[in-house]
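Give me the fold.
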Amino acid sequence: MYAIIATGGKQYKVSEGDVISVEKLEGDKESSVTFDTVLALGGDSLSVGDDVKSATVTGTILEHGRRKKVTVYKYKPKSGYHKKNGHRQSYTKVKIEKINA
């Protein structure tokens, strides 16, 4: 069985036992997290809409971290304008424990 969940403005296809990296979530390491926004449930048949309204997905937070640095360079020719900036996005690694359908 799998579920499609939405968190952090993105959608993820998850099954029990999967480890996913999502946008940063509140919570300590080894604490439980519940995803209420389930968009679809699949297995032998696909369920969407009102069929999955009460479905939830629970998981455990494994770690918090930051991704590799991305360099952002802005440049405009002939005006002498240039600006260099860096960005590191925060993430949370979550292990999916149970899909409650």
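The chain has one domain: 2-100.
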